Amino acid sequence: MISGLSLLLRDVPSAVVPALLDRLDARQRYELLALYPPVPQTVNHVLSQGGSPRDRVALARNRYSDRALLLRLMQCGEYEVDRSVYFHRRTTGAMRRSIAPAPQEPVLATRELVELLRGHQRVRHALRILDRPHVLDPHVLLSEHRRRPLPPGAVEALVLSGECPREAVLALLDTRGTRTYGRWWYRPTVRAVRTGAITPAELVRHMAPAHRTLLLPTVQIRGGLRFNEAEAAAVREATGHVLHPVLADRIEDWTDFGRRAHTFEGTLPELAAATGHISTGGPGIEGLSSALLDALPVRREPCRDPLARADALKALARLDTDSRPQYHLRKQALADGLLTGDDIVLHGAPARAAIDEKCWLGHLEHFDRPQAVAAARTRTAELARAALGEDPEAWWAVARRLPKFEGTFPELLGQGFRGDSLSAW
C-alpha cells in the first residue's frame, strides 16, 4: 500500500496530503518519508510548512533528499544550521572580512542588508551575509526588490535561509524589472520548489517575465543545479493547466502567443489572458521556440501503420514484464510515434506499472524519453484529479488498491462511479 501511495502523492492536491498521511501509522509514515525515493514536492511543501519534528527527521534521513531541503528542515529546530557548506574555501580573505560577522557588530536594518546582498552574486557569499545580525522586514525587502530586483544569488540565499514567508518567496521570483539576468537566473526557482517553499503550480502562476517560466523545464546545464525530470514534468503540467484552458487548440491563438511571449513582462497567466491585445517587437530569446513547442497541446497525427500501432497497444497489457527486449520495443514504439505517454497511462496494465516510468522505460537515472514521461504524468494527474477531486477517502482507497490491481489506471478510477464506492472499500 505504501508503494501505491508514494506514486499517487505526486498528483494529490496539497490540501489532501495531511489527511492521507494521518491515516498511516508511525512505522508506515516513517517508511514513506525516509525510504521511498523520492518524496514528492507536494509532501515536501506541506511538511516543511507545518510537519511534526518526527516527519522532518524522516525526510532528512531520506538519501534522496536535496541538500537545500535539508537546510530548510534544519531551520525548524531539529538541527543546527551550518550554512558554511556554501561558503567555499576559495573565497578571498578581503571578501571574507567584508561579509563575515565582526565581534559585537550592530544589527543590520533591512535596507542595509539588501544593499549588501546586491553587491555579491554568489549564493555562498549571500548566505554568509545573512549570518550577520540583521532584521528582515518582508515588506521593505519586497519594496526594494520591486524598485531594483535582487541578483539570483541573493534570492537563492533568501530561499535557503527560510526567513521569507511563502508570499515573499513568490514575490521575489517576479523579476520583470531586470534587463539582463545572467546564466544562473533559474537557480532560485529550483531551490524554492525543491525545498518545498512553493509548489510548481505557484511558481508558474507568479514568476515573471513569462518567457522565463516557459524556459524553466528546458534548461540544460551540464553538472549544475537544474530541475530533474520529475520536477520539470511538474512544471510542464502546471504550464499546461494555465495555458490550455485559455488557448485551447486554436492555432492562431498559439501563434499570436508565441510572437508576443519574448517581450511580455508579466506572468504567464497575464500573457495568456492578454494574447491578441499586446504589441509585438524586440529581439528573440534563445530556446523560446522549442519551449513553446513543449507547451503546445499534443495533437495525434493519423498513424500510417495501424497494425503496428495495434500490436504496440496490445503489448501494453504486460508492462510489469521486466526484460530488456520489452524496454527496447516500447522505446522504439515511442520514437516511431506508434505510442505516446498518454497511451501508456490509458491502456497500460497493471495500473501501478502504467503510472511508474521505471516500469516501462527501465530503471534509469535520466529518462531518455522525457516528452513521453511528461505526457504520461500530465495525463495521470488529469485523470486522478478529475475522478477523485479533493476527497481523502477516495485517494486513500485508490492507494490501497493500486499495488494489486490488474486492470488499467482509468479502470481503477472508474470503479468509484459504478456503485462500489472506492471510499467504502
List descriptors.
425 residues, mainly alpha, 56% helix, 0% strand, globular, disordered C terminus
Model description:
The chain is mainly alpha-helical and 425 residues long. Among the domains are: 2-65, no CATH class; 199-297, no CATH class; 306-424, no CATH class. It is built from 27 helices and no strands. Helix 16 (229-247) crosses helix 25.
Please report the total strand number as a whole number: 0
Shape: globular
Distance between the termini: 14 Å
State the major sheet: none
Helical residue percent? 55-70%
- The tally of helices reads 27
Class computed from helices, strands and strand pairing? mainly alpha
Please compute the radius of gyration using only Cα atoms: 23 Å
H and E order: HHHHHHHHHHHHHHHHHHHHHHHHHHH
Strand content: under 5%
Low-confidence stretches: 77-99, 277-283, 417-425
Mean pLDDT, nearest integer?
78
SSE topology sketch:
Blueprint: H1 2-8, H2 17-22, H3 26-34, H4 41-50, H5 53-61, H6 67-74, H7 93-99, H8 110-118, H9 123-130, H10 138-147, H11 152-161, H12 166-172, H13 187-194, H14 200-206, H15 210-215, H16 229-247, H17 251-260, H18 268-274, H19 288-295, H20 306-315, H21 324-336, H22 341-347, H23 351-354, H24 357-361, H25 370-388, H26 392-401, H27 409-414
Helix pairs in contact: 1-26, 3-5, 9-11, 11-13, 14-16, 16-18, 16-25, 22-25
